[in-house]
Amino acid sequence: MSRSRSEFKANRQNSPLGIWNKWLLEHLVLAEVEPRLEILPYQEVLIRPIGKNVLITCHAIVEGKNLITDLHWHDPSGRVINDWGPRNQMHTMVMPGDNTLALIFPSLLESEAGNYTCTANFASSEKLSKTVQIETIIAVTWLDAPEEQYPILNSDYKVRCKVMANPPPNIDWQKNSELITPGGRYVVESDGLLIQKASESDDGVYTCRAIVIETGELAERNIRVEVSWYTCRAIAIETGELVHLQSHCHRDRGVSAPAEPFSSRQGVGTPAEPLSSRQVHTPPTFEDMGSEPVEVIEGEQASVTCKAKGKPQPKFSWIKSLKQENLASADRFGVNELTGVLTITRVTKEDDGEYVCVAKNAAGSVERMVRLSVVIKPVVVTYRNISIAMEKDATLQCSASGRPSPSVTF
């Protein structure tokens, strides 16, 4: 009796040899992916600042997701971290998808540094494990670095900039965007920059820069420094043969300060001349910026610096002429009012045009027009493939666009 081909095939699949082949095929497929746990971010040592929110995930890489059981995170002491703890403490959370468990630090503590291990069981027989080390750092923190400081004329003054970080930072200084080389009247100290015998030429914007080499962190604090004068009034007090003049001084900004006593034979009750005059304010004047347009490249970040001097040191703003728009709050633009730097995070062709830099202080304001020219990278617009017989003349055409107009070569 003859049997159909389908009946023969079914019987062959259900035979002991067919069942064995099916089992072997399934397990060979499973063996193509070695069961393992993957921790993301993928680093053996994760360096994170204290106080920051941190999330680490553990994911099982296996064929057959239902074969993974008992997926847990363990703390440095080996204890299982629960998912039902307070949300403001370290805890775990099951992520959407298959076999992914997150370890969450709502606000990383220095004491939470250590080795964290993710474990799971595969097919009820194989133990999987993966460990990550967390190291904590202290990000750059400004402890004492006021953004406005006022040295006294002809006195030594330390521009305060006390910084905390772990690992410890390297500190350098800039004045009006130019690096200060220690020496002369400038002394770099651990908690500031000492200016010896401060003069009005020391007015400006000082940048205290903290660099942590190990972590790549760079932080800056701009500090406006303005040298002030004292105005003093002297009162004559008779003490024997000499008349001592006790002076009461105040800075032009109204902050009281002691003054050196001195003696004089001037008559009792006669007011003394001021020991110094009040501070003189001068309106801003621009430094030479040239008259050529400033070129910026489409799609890239660009910065334009506007420099002016005056007393007190002026503050800056930038206006786009066409729209009369203050760029301090505009999308993609940033303005540093102390340094006069205009930053464009991603230049577009619409940024081409005229801009106005405004420098203003208590004595007045000045404006300067700056033209930005956006350079547009060349793009091939059209080209055509042609076929031509041998030893015949041919003309190839290719056109490209850009600003300024690009030259085309073959």
UniProtKB/TrEMBL annotation:
**One GO term describing the cellular component:** plasma membrane
Q: Write down a Pfam family by its short name.
A: I-set
Q: Which UniProt keywords apply?
A: Cell adhesion, Disulfide bond, Immunoglobulin domain, Membrane, Repeat, Signal, Transmembrane, Transmembrane helix
Coiled-coil boundaries: none
GO terms under biological process: homophilic cell adhesion via plasma membrane adhesion molecules; neuron projection morphogenesis
- Domain Ig-like stretches: 35-129, 159-224, 284-373
Chain residue ranges for the region called Disordered: 254-290
**Where's it mainly located?**
membrane
Q: Could you confirm whether the keyword Acyltransferase appears in this record?
A: no
Localisation per UniProt entry:
Membrane
InterPro entries associated with the record: Cell_Adh-Cytoskel_Orgn, Ig-like_dom, Ig-like_dom_sf, Ig-like_fold, Ig_I-set, Ig_sub, Ig_sub2
* Membrane topology reported for the UniProt record: Single-pass membrane protein
What name goes with this protein? Answer: Ig-like domain-containing protein
Q: Which organism is it from?
A: Timema tahoe
